[in-house]
Design a protein that fits this description.
Layout lengths: L1 H4 L3 E7 L4 E6 L7 E5 L3 E2 L2 H9 L7 H12 L3 E6 H9 L2
Parallel strand pairs: 1-5
Antiparallel strand pairs: 1-2, 2-3, 3-4
């Protein structure tokens, strides 16, 4: 998968809790970044349209990239305070 090959998956790690969320780069020319919980949620349009509304797919490509990068150990870990992680999540 191109997103994983181009190291487009970051795991945002909160300290000291160890909570995390993934930030995945999109493949469009704008290179938007989407916050993503690999099993439950992605902030991309496709997640809401194809998965939530239409039920046509199990997950979007950003969720798949996050799962794959995590399994392969190729995601970039970014450490931050729990407070900063909470602020990031509040913008969803």
């Amino acid at each position: 998968m191109r997103i994983v090959d181009q190291r487009g998956v970051k795991r945002m790690l909160g300290h000291p809790s160890g909570r995390s969320i993934f930030q995945v780069v999109g493949e469009s020319k704008r290179k938007e970044e989407y916050l993503c919980f690999p099993q439950h949620y992605c902030a991309c349009y496709s997640f809401f349209y194809d998965i939530v509304n239409r039920g046509e797919q199990l997950c979007c490509k950003h969720q798949l990239a996050a799962r794959l990068a995590s399994s392969l150990g190729t995601c970039i870990d970014v450490k931050m305070s729990d407070h900063d992680l909470a602020l990031m999540l509040s913008h969803l």
